[in-house]
Every structure is written in structure tokens, then in C-alpha cells.
Design brief:
This protein has about 325 residues and is an alpha/beta fold. Helices cover about 55% and strands about 10% of the residues. It contains twelve helices and seven strands. Helix 2 crosses helix 10 and helix 7 runs antiparallel to helix 9. The radius of gyration is 21 Å and the shape is globular.
């Protein structure tokens, strides 16, 4: 019985491996629209897909980011400005993409644009802090996607949404985790809605990687700014030395887990765009696969207890 079970498991694995490895090879006529190409994953992905022969349409927030990308890529890649929080900008980008893809439609949309600040304890934040991040990471992503669905359907193409492992487990206050949970939910509904049209939708879930979003200096600067505007009673709840105790602990945690090889994420996005049978989700990074995903499946009480043991307690904490 055990031998039979082992053979069946091996067969299932080999079949999955064979199915997962089937790739689309003709890409020279396929357009891919990527948001957030100024730095990080988007910047590297645009370069990578350009080298692979794709027709890359790279959206950048700044002129400097666009120029730096142009300097590193072929004349085939085209850049344009995009602010995902501005409906007019999204509409202009959609018209530009339509003019490029024409009747072929758009093969791939990679929703990569995102920010991580402000982030901090929930009672340090205002509703405007929540809105700023949600507008970029979730509402902007949804609006860009809606503007491209007709072109994606025409090509029976792909939509790849950049979520995070923090769309599986909420580790800190602010709307970063909230936005990524929202991306996961949007990704699921979109995948099911568009499946009948031949459109495939995938979600990328990176763990910690060394990008601008996870830069310790950027995070620390944001925390100092939040602390500086707190009412005195909230400061007293946490203690005047809270940041001095919290930040070395948090920085060590980030530096220990952050993966320097950003190409691991780029390769997963490439697979989602070129696989005959792309996966629904791609967890990327050792910490994502061995720590955060398993922890997200644990009983809530256990997860809360474990995370509380790793955190720095406020001065007036009652537990």
C-alpha cells in the first residue's frame, strides 16, 4: 500500500513538473505593460523581458526613472509616465498602450507599482495615512487593470499582480498589509471572472527582498516622522525610549531576512507570463516559503503569541 501511494505521489509530481515546465517560445510579437519601473522589481523585469525579446511598455512615475531604464535597454522598449493614483494619467496610459498593441491586444499586464510608507502601530496613524497607501497599492492597481481588461481579453493574455507574503499574514499596522490582502482578494475574483475568456491571472507573493520598500533607512525615517507628530498621551503609552528599543530590533530582523537577489522575483513573473499553465500564486523567498506561509496557516492564538514574543512591548503594555 505504501509503495503504491509512493508511486502515485511520484507520478503526480512528475506530471506537475512537466505541466509547469511547458513554455511559450514565440514572444517577439507580444506586448507587456509593466507599472512601477523606476526601481526594484519593475526596473529589473523591464530589462529582463526586453532581453528576452518582448515588446515592453514600461510605466515610470518619474522622468529620471524612465531615462535610466532607457539607457539600459534596447530601442524596442518604450517608457511613459504613469501616476496610478490619477485617473487621467491612467486613461492616457491606456490610450498609449492601445496605440501600440493595436488589434493584437495586450499579452501581459504586470501590476508592480507600490509603496510601503507610512507604516507603524495603528494608533500612530490617521485615516489619511491609510488612504495614501491604499490609493497606490490597491485602488490604483484595480483601476489600471480595469483599463486594460478589453485588450487582455483580445489577446487571451496574462495579468500578474504584485502582492506580498503580507497579503497572507498581517505583521504590522498601517494599510500595507491591508492593501496586499486586498490585492489577493482582487486577484482571486479576477482569475475566476476572466478564466472563461482564456485570460490567466497570477499573484506574486515575495517575502523580504532588498528593495526601496524594505530599505531600513526609509522605514526608520517614516517611523521618526510619525513619532514626531504623536500626541503626548500616545507617546506616554509607548514610552519616550520606545523607538530606541524598537528600531535596532526591527532593523536586525529586516537585514537578517532580506534577500538580495531580486531576480528570484523576476523569474517568477517571467514564468507567469510565459508558462502554458501559469500558477495561481508564486511565493518567492526562503522566508516566504518556510516561515510566513506556514505561520499564516497556524491557529490565530498561536500566531499572535509567537509574534508578540518577538515584539518590543510599549511602556504601558498590560500583558
Amino acid at each position: 500500500m505504501l509503495i503504491y501511494l509512493g508511486v502515485m505521489l511520484l507520478f503526480c509530481f512528475l506530471y506537475w513538473w512537466y505541466r509547469d515546465s511547458k513554455q511559450i517560445t514565440a514572444v517577439s510579437d507580444k506586448h507587456v505593460y509593466i507599472t512601477g519601473c523606476d526601481t526594484g522589481f519593475g526596473h529589473l523585469l523591464a530589462q529582463h523581458l526586453d532581453k528576452q525579446g518582448f515588446q515592453v511598455l514600461a510605466a515610470c512615475f518619474t522622468e529620471q526613472g524612465a531615462q535610466e531604464l532607457k539607457d539600459k535597454t534596447s530601442s524596442r522598449l518604450q517608457t511613459f509616465r504613469l501616476d496610478v493614483t490619477n485617473s487621467e494619467s491612467i486613461g492616457k496610459a491606456a490610450e498609449f498602450v492601445k496605440s501600440q498593441v493595436k488589434d493584437k491586444g495586450l499579452w501581459g499586464l504586470v501590476n508592480n507599482a507600490g509603496i510601503s510608507q507610512p507604516v507603524g502601530p495603528s494608533d500612530w496613524l490617521t485615516i489619511d495615512d491609510y488612504k495614501v497607501l491604499l490609493d497606490v497599492n490597491l485602488i490604483g492597481l484595480i483601476e489600471v487593470t480595469l483599463s486594460m481588461i478589453p485588450l487582455i481579453k483580445r489577446a487571451r493574455g496574462r495579468i500578474v499582480n504584485m502582492a506580498s507574503i503580507y497579503g497572507r499574514i498581517s505583521m504590522f499596522g498601517g494599510s500595507y498589509c491591508i492593501s496586499k490582502f486586498g490585492v489577493e482578494a482582487f486577484n482571486d475574483s479576477l482569475r475566476r471572472d476572466l478564466r472563461c475568456f482564456g485570460v490567466k491571472v497570477a499573484c506574486i507573493e515575495p517575502g523580504y527582498f532588498k528593495t526601496h520598500i524594505s530599505n531600513p533607512d526609509v522605514i526608520n525615517e517614516g517611523l521618526i516622522k510619525l513619532w514626531g507628530r504623536l500626541p503626548q498621551d500616545v507617546r506616554e503609552d509607548y514610552g519616550d525610549d520606545y523607538l530606541d528599543k524598537f528600531w535596532p530590533h526591527a532593523k536586525a530582523h529586516i537585514e537578517k531576512l532580506a534577500e538580495p537577489n531580486l531576480m528570484k522575483v523576476v523569474w517568477r513573473i517571467h514564468h507567469a507570463l510565459t508558462s502554458v499553465h501559469p500558477r495561481s500564486r508564486y511565493a518567492v523567498g526562503v522566508d516566504a516559503k518556510l516561515l510566513w506561509i506556514p505561520l499564516s496557516y497556524m491557529p490565530t492564538a498561536f500566531t499572535d503569541f509567537l509574534l508578540a514574543r518577538q515584539s518590543v512591548k510599549p511602556a504601558k503594555a498590560v500583558y
